[in-house]
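Sample 3 of the quickstart, ligand adenosine-5'-triphosphate:
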Amino acid sequence: MTLTVTNLAKYYGDVAVFKNVSLQVAAGEFVAIVGESGVGKSTLLNCMAGLDNWDTGGVSLVGQDLGTLGDDQRALLRRVNVGFVFQAFHVLPHLDVTQNVALPLLLLGQHDDARVQAMLTAVGLDGLGARLPQQLSGGQLQRVAIARALVHRPRLLLADEPTGNLDPTTAAKVMDALVAQTREHGASLVLVTHSGAAAERADRVLRLTVEGVF
Ligand SMILES: Nc1ncnc2c1ncn2[C@@H]1O[C@H](COP(=O)(O)OP(=O)(O)OP(=O)(O)O)[C@@H](O)[C@H]1O
Ligand SMILES: [Mg+2]
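Result:
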């Protein structure tokens, strides 16, 4: 299993964000997670990446129990195995498009211009490599975030509403890029979405509620 979540619970004070969350994601599988605003989808995704802490239960990523790892070890595991498309992009404003996409490779000491260019082409950003993020549209920014999340060929891609705020046509294009790239490299994809059209493309759709996933 690429990802195993077992009986996970997260509380703020006495209030459960979620509890009894158990799920598995196999290699190459595409799982969509849906649920009402505020139910904890982004929080769960952050826990899956070891970016947030939980109260009970566990997360195992590519066979490693995140609960036993410190922040530095989690960061190393993530750097190699995980791509993350955040709900708010987190594209670095002072780096141009090419530099943003190349960043995960630089952190791994794997400089590879050809791969970065191929990634930009794959998400339809040919010719925009020298632009700064502020010179891009919302849909283009989302594609930069997707290219950056996939450039180092992670085994698991976690994407948090990557088509939020896009018109249906652009959203479909961004989804095409995301699905094609994960399928091509056999990566697993966990996609949080409010979009029925996006969820429809998944192998499996899970609904997150305060009582667990169903
Ligand atoms: N530091 C905090 N203290 C208390 N509650 C918090 C804190 N951070 C987040 N929450 C609450 O945790 C819940 C889960 O938030 P989260 O962002 O995971 O929801 P979500 O399902 O991703 O929502 P959306 O669909 O709107 O993105 C929310 O109800 C939020 O108000
Ligand atoms: Mg969210």
